[in-house]
Amino acid sequence: MSTSTRTLGIAVAQMGPLHLADSREAAVRRLSDMLREAAARGARFVVFPELALTTFFPRYWYEDEAEVNARFFEAQMPGPATQPLFELARELGVGFYLGYAELTPEGRRFNSAILVDEHARIVAKYRKIHLPGHADHKPAAPFQHLEKKYFEVGNGGWGVTDMLGTRIGQCLCNDRRWPETYRVMSLQSARIVALGYNTPSHNIHWDEPVHLRMFHHLLSLQANAYQNGLWVAAAAKCGREDGHHMIGGSAIVAPTGEIVAQAQGEEDEVIFARCDLALGEQFLQHVFNFARHRRPEHYRLITERTGAGLPLPPDALSTEAPGA
Asked: I need a surface site. Which of 31, 64, 110, 138 has the fewest CB within 10 A?
């Protein structure tokens, strides 16, 4: 379909379970093994999952905030445990995306991701905007989903970064379900969106059929890749972490909306695609030519309202987010 070809080797490094007892050093060794495999297959950019250095700790209620900070958050990046990953990336000449829990010098906490270039320099940071779950303790639930307790809403928007000869944007987990996420990045001429996720297979907020968790995950990636002329590279942390199951389904999706690579299991696994970066431009020159066809003067409600204008009946109201 494309008239010219500019390719980039992209790998997604899915992680199997990380348990409460697993150390950061053990996590970094696993990430490093997959980085080596990805480079050997021709990748110049590798996408790691959300919160890739620890278990998905928002499933647990902690009273001691100092313990949470010390156990799960990164006060510096790279730090002593993560420095080997950066050194390996520099040696291999490969860039990467990494999700982690960020503790700022002021004590603020974010669910964050970074872009690291082929020289091991951090060139961009993203802080998750669409935080799912709740902040209160739900002792009757099978597990907690406390992103609203442990993280602030991201304060930097969705930026797009020049890197590896293209433009790369970032998002995290629940962000992938919201069309505004991708459109904002596509309007900045993104060609690739990198995202990591940790998605429970069971939704504690409502009786959602389990099979829809994977269906809606892939639907979100495919529809938004197509409607925005983007390559989307999505990395899961998945499997049973201390008995709590999360979906896999790591994938690389083309601007056609087609899945060109997908993980087959729920363990550490590298998937790879040689991506034609010009492919998305064909869609953006024709069916989704934004400058020619968009009519933002008619889209005001998108920014003026957070919810529907008409009230819903009381039994239809819910204050819970739909899950990560």
From this structure: 64
